[in-house]
Amino acid sequence: MGLSKPWQWGIRARLIMLAVLPVALVALGLGYYLISSRLSELEHGLQQRGDAIAKGLVPAVEFGLFSGDLSMLRSLAASALAEPDVVAVDFLDQDQELVWHSHVEGFSQVESVRDDGKLVVTLPVRRGEVTMADFELQPGERRLPEVIGWVRLILSKEMMYERRRQMIVNSLLWILAGLLTSLLVALRMGNRVATPIIELTHMVERLGQGKMGERVPEDGGGELGSLQQGVNRMADALHEAHCSLHQRIEKATQELQDTVAELERKNRELEAARMQALHASQAKTDFLAKMSHEIRTPVNAVIGFSRLLQQSLSDPEQLEHVRTINQAASQLLCIINDILNFSRLELGNVKLEAIPFDIRDCLEDVITMFRPMVHEKGLELVLLVHSDVPVNLVGDPTRISQVLSNLVNNAVKFTQRGGVTIQVLVEREQAESVFLRIEVTDTGIGMSEQDKSDLFTAFSQADSSINRRFGGTGLGLSIAKKLVELMDGEIDVESTPDVGSTFWFTLRCRKQSAIRQNHRDAVFVGEKVLVYDSHPLARRALRNILLNWRMQVYNSGDLERVKQVLGERKESSGEAFKLLLLGLSQDEMRPGILLGIIADLRQHYKGPILLLINAEDYDLPEPLKGDAGIDCIAKPTRRDTLQRHMLGLLSREGVTEVCLPETAEQLRTQRLRGLQVLLADDNEFNLTLVRTLLEQAGAMVVEARNGEEAVARFSEARFDLVLMDIHMPVVDGIEAARRIRMQAGSRMVPIIALTADVFADQQRSLRQAGLDDCLFKPITEEALWQIVERWAGTKLAPRDMPRRRSNDHTSTTSVVAADIPPQLRPKLYAELPRHLDYINRAHNQADRDALREHIHKLHGVAGYFKLSDLLGITRELERRLADGQSLDDESIHELNRSVEQLLVSLDPPT
Amino acid sequence: MPCPALILLVLLVLWLPLPVASASLTLDIVLSARSAPYLEAARALRHNLAPELFAEQGVKTWLLEDWLARRQPPAGVVVTLGTRAAHRLVSLAGEYKLLSSMITASTYHLMAGSTPIRRHWAAIVLDQPAYRYVRLIAELLPEARRLGLLYGDDSRRLLGSLDAVGKEHRLTLQMIHVQPDDNVAKAIKRLVRDSDVILALPDPLALSPQNAKWLLYMAYQRGIPVIGYSHALAKAGALAALYTTPQQIGRETAEFLNRYGEDGSFPAGMHTARYFKLALNPWVARSLHINVPEEKELSRRLHRQEGRHGAE
Question: What is the DSSP secondary structure assignment for residue A656, as one 8-state letter?
Fold first, then answer.
């Protein structure tokens, strides 16, 4: 253990050191100085005394030496010897011959001059003078008086040494005494200072240990006393605070415990409530699913049968009644869809897709759907996609169409004159995404600020009279708002009463990395075309389409100007237009005016003319029917429709269509004429259904019952469309699609998946495999026609479209009636047990994949025939398998029971 | 033709040793050294010169070296103050009158003996005449009969007058000749033993500053008063002393020159100082139990005896 460092010493040690050290230093320093001074003084004093005695002797000895008076010398020597320390006196003559010597007893004359312990003082005796003259008459050299003798004084240093020793000892003793005294004083003072401080320190430590009752005696004075009092007061305050804190802590702890207990209780209640809510939500979802199926099924049946009835009737009045029934049922279906969609949104059951799509296709679907309604009201409908809008995006086209349809529907509903304009702009663009702004502007009745306040609130309409006048549930905008917000967008309206409204919404879409090119767009590169339309936006929209095809476009809103330009560019010159596109207003469509316009134009232009008209069925005036260079289509038109008619006029593909009125039968039987379709499904019912519908529409259908067969069929012929079931034996639909895509020339053929799988990740895998779209089972006619129309480029939309279409995967609308057709019953009677055997075997073998596959197929059959009980059971089993759960025996037994009951209900085939 | 009376008058003026009591007398005062005694003497000399005889501009004071290096001819009268200037100038030839002042008699005799006597040379010495000492002794020590003194070759000349004057005052001289190699201490011892009063003469051969101390000491031991020749001796232990100050010698020199200027007399030879001062040492008197009168009174008496009243 070594000595602690000075800065680690306690206060007592520091005080002592503080008191002793300076004193010691001063004492030692001063002592040394004084001792050394005294020593040198002693020596010097001896020397001085010797000198003084000798000097005193010198004048006295002079006469004795002068006169030779030895007695005088003796007495002088004796008086010198009487001085302390003088041990010998010598008087010498001028030749330093000894004249007289005296010494004390015990003094050795021989050694006297050589002994270092002796001090010898020798002084000359000079002849003294008196001043005799008052002044010097003859200044001469001053010479030292003549030396007549010497005085030699010998002093002993013994006494000096003794005195020196005594002095040193005394000094040291005094120094020691001083140090001791200072040490004692320091100790005492240090104790007096340190002890109270140490006591305070100990007390503080005890306070820190929680002994709040400790106090120090207040016996100190001055600052220490103040410190003691202060510490005691501090201790009192600490004690009080400690007690108060302790009380508060106890109270808080108790409150905390109570709160924790309450929280635990509430947690339990919340957990119970959560479970209840979950169960309730699940129950709601199940209810919605069931109800949507239960509600839609009869309504679809009404719609379906009314159509069938419509096809079989000829009486106009009856047709009108059926049409009314159809409309009412469609309206009811729309209302039901609204309510169900709203409920699903409220429950958060809506998941957005993220699939590649063309925004223009999405918009064209919507306008195509509403175009007949718009034309029927005599309004103008314009779709303008600004040229900077990236069209190949990744998002949910279904939800976008849903929102847009809602807005367009409202715009058309509330506009009596003028028109509706849909514009798509870029709000801002980033490297990988783009924020689009879609505006729907109408020249309708508008609304006030007050009306706008609750516009997007569910179940509210701007005006109750509107509900009476225009109908509607008031859910459309709230549904649109929720969908827009799901897509990270905003929705709002700007409106002026009696002027019109502009509903706009924004959405964020990712840009597609790979852009699919349509090779047909290259056929018009460089061709000169002249565009006329009095509506500037319509003209601009058409111009954008043509410019995108890299055509040379000249556009004008003035017919006179058009005539002038045509006159300037003769057909014989290289500047002549290859095609003339005329967008006609309602007035310009009147036969007399149209004939006049065409006649004027024909004076300057003999080439093909494509008329874009605000009507679905337009009967060209007779004189124009014979002009093969004139064609007409409804506007706004799809791009592919426009392209096809332009090609037809320009004789590129040899397809010409004349806008002739068509009967419903002709429409129905000719809409798919020439369409080559490959249909792959291992389910006979699905095959039969879809094949029947397609063949009724004039399409040529080739069947395949598994993926491998589908690939083989595809390679043998040219198809315009492939409908591919996903879950098939041998090779499933995804693998089959992948193999088809590896075949040359397959890229241009759309492959549509037929599936009941609605999960987002499965749809993504379909896209990656090369499938272009999905048609969800159970397949509806509307969905089928839309898919075919979208991907086969064929005008398929029936005259009366429902206001919205629903691609709700929970919809289980079926195309057939509730009763199973008799011709399908034997097959059903055979299929059900077969599927059940597969399921039982897979369950017994614990083959989860096979189990899931066969339950899925059985689910499809049940959905197709609307076997609700069986449908519910298979759905639940599929969901549990998808969640990773295993199926117990009881669940399989329940499934078996349901099938057996069903079989019993079916009349067994004979 | 000029008037004969006028011619006669002119000749008479030229011929008659008219007193040179005219301002045309020139005087050079040559100092042996630039020291206080000489300057005081010179100042006193100039102060006491008759202005009608010695015009201010005709009197110049020189240091010896400067006077020797001068280019102009000397003044009509040259006065030296001190031994050195006297020694130097006395050997120089020149028609000017030389007055060596402020020297001792022994110096005079030495100069007179070593150099040819110069014409127009006079000296005023600082030494007191013998009778003055004797009169003093008679006043202070009327019972004294034996006057002891040490003498050397320099003071031999004084013995005769001392003896003669002494006899008049019933004083017998006890003389001890001292030579350079003699044991002065023994001589002093003998002198002290055989004297009632001792006279210290300014004879360096007889009494040196060293010996003088022992003379005073031994005389004191025996109770024998000593009469000295300087104020310093009185202070050193002599009972009394007679001396001449530089101012007095300067005054006396001026008077000598004034007489010369008045009547042309320039008596050659040595002249003792006329003016003197008395110094008494009352402590010595007290120690020797000698009643002495007041110094001023005694001085007056002495001056009166010389026919002067308060001539100091």
Answer: -
